[in-house]
Amino acid sequence: MGKLSESLTTLDKDGVLRVVKADLDAGRNPLDLIEDAREGLQKVGEEFEKGNLFLMELMRAAQIFKSAAALITPRIKEGGRIDKVKGKVLIGTVSGDVHDLGKGIVASLLECEGFEVVDLGVDVPEKAFVAKVKEHNPQVVGMSGLLTTSIPVMGRTVQALADAGLRGQVKIIAGGGIVGEVDASRIGADFTTSNANEGVRMINAWTRKKG
Amino acid sequence: MKKTFSRYERLLAAWNLEEADRVPVAPINCYIIPYLEGLSIKEMFLEPEKLVRATVNCLDICGDEVDPNITTLDHLSLLGKSGWDQATLDWRIWDDFPPKGNIPSFYEKTILEDYDDVLERGFGPILFNRKICPDVFRRSPEDFIYYEFEYPKIYAQAWRRFVEEHDVPLLMGGRACHPLDLLQYYRGINQLTEDIFERPEKIKAISEVLVEYEAMRAMKQAMIMGAGEVPGAEIIFFVNGGPPGMSPRIFDEFFWPYAKKSIDLFVKRGFRVRCHWDNDMTPYLDTMKHIADGLPKGKVLLDLEKTNMKKAKEVLGDRVCILGNVPSALLVYGTPEEVEACCRKLIEDCAEGGGFVLSTECETPWDAKRENVRAIIESAEKYGRY
User: Which residue in chain A has the smallest CA separation from B192?
Assistant: First the structure.
């Protein structure tokens, strides 16, 4: 593990930014730097899933990654290089629910992982999910919700996608406070979870298989 | 012959870590009662007599105490009340329950732009601010004065009559939030996380301010509700909701000291403290076992949401009463038989020797099945006899 990823796993923001600046000044390929930072973030994610690190630390790691990426990304563009996009994920909190945090954490982690994320916001009607899937053609749809009432709404959203003939072209993940306690088949999703990192890992696995 | 316990005595025995006739049972019923009785959320908040009548019609799911929905007072009075105010909550559609309307919900947003104003001028004045809360200026001064000074008395009278007529104590008289719980509403959890790592001294300084602010407000609320006269009104419902997923280091440094300080303050002023602890607190139990240190017996209860109750009983069951935690998902999607099995396990794990109240995890979802909530009450009768 390099210095950059190591500093990220210890949540040392100053250390991360110091290494990034020094490496960029030394002419290191910015794409390699992004990969190093991702390695650190993945390590934090693994430790989070093992119970050795906590959600706040996962959020902090994503914040540090974004600060690093803000320095690195302009250099990638300057050099005419392209950071490989792993896939496209469309994500939103379902209709009737305005809770944003869980969705925000997952969206943030996905962006750090190299996914293109289309964030539809909160209180997103079924119709909007359908329209946006048609517009953006994502590989994965993520539905978020904290309230118990969001569960049937998630089911209706999946049904709306099926009615529009879109169900077969997307994997669907549902997440939120109690969503992981509900079987995916009740919603019609492919996977349910209450764990942000587990969700990101599943999306990674799906897009790897498809890729 | 065995003593017959009133509901209040049964609860007091549990708080005192003693066995009563049976395990007390008390789901936290908030929105479910107005929903079952066809009240709008607006009526629930504005017409206490209707809410009380609805509660009377739902006594079959109340058990040994009732939630007087103190958040009502938080919302309608002047700003800056435990996060439940016009600045933090989404009240766009409060006439109806879903799917037409919604229950009040939090937005993740940064309302409070920096801490220095609060440190200089206190918390209240900051929120009476056009930028933070434009809605405040749509209400007339008379309206605010009524809901700040007059309505709480009307509200308290309605609940006092309920307690007298039905002999069911209140779950709380006042409500306070932990400083970090409050800050997550006004600062947003993402921003608060950054603040904890980058501005730790500011967080500690503002926490000191907020402990005082919340304590004074909650104790006043409890006094209006009849603390000392109305059974249960002497309880401060102390919300320790978040932020979620703190590491034990952050918990010990930023959360615990102010939780303990608040609890000690309430108890020293003569109140009992129900610590409502959202999230899974299992990683912090070793610290939390000191929650009642230095305090008289029977003054603190831990109301746990996702925490492992068996573990909680093992670690701190000889020190403090614990309450919890039938899962919300089970109450909405499970069967009475599944709820009964869950309750039986909780009683087996936690009830021995007293110091346990059977309840829901956080509040009963408004869309829970009535028969499932009733199954909690019946399980206490069936399996909870001492």
Answer: A56
pTM given for the model = 0.90
CATH number of the domain at A40, please.
1.10.1240.10
Q: What is the pLDDT of residues B240-256, one digit of tens each?
A: 987 889 999 999 999 99
Instruction: Tell me whether residue B123 is in a domain.
Output: yes
Structural domains in chain B (count): 1
Q: Which two tokens stand for residue B344?
A: 């039986």
Q: How many CB pairs lie under 8 A apart between chains A and B?
A: 80
Q: Which residue of A has its CA nearest to B96?
A: A96
Mutation target for A interface from B332, B361, B362, B366: give the one with most A CBs within 10 A. B332
Expressed as residue numbers, the domain containing A144 is 88-210
Q: Which domain holds residue B268?
A: 7-383
Single-letter residue type at A202:
M
What are the strands, taking DSSP E only, across chain B? 89-90, 105-106, 174-177, 235-240, 272-277, 300-304, 321-326, 356-360
Out of B102, B245, B365, name the one closest to residue A56 (CB).
B245
Q: Most B CBs within 10 Å: which of A12, A59, A111, A181, as the mutation test of the B interface?
A: A59
Q: Do A71 and A170 fall within a single domain?
A: no
Cβ distance A178 to B246 less than 8 Å, yes or no, reads no
Tokens of A95: 């209709």
Count, residues in chain B:
386
pLDDT mean over B318-342: 96
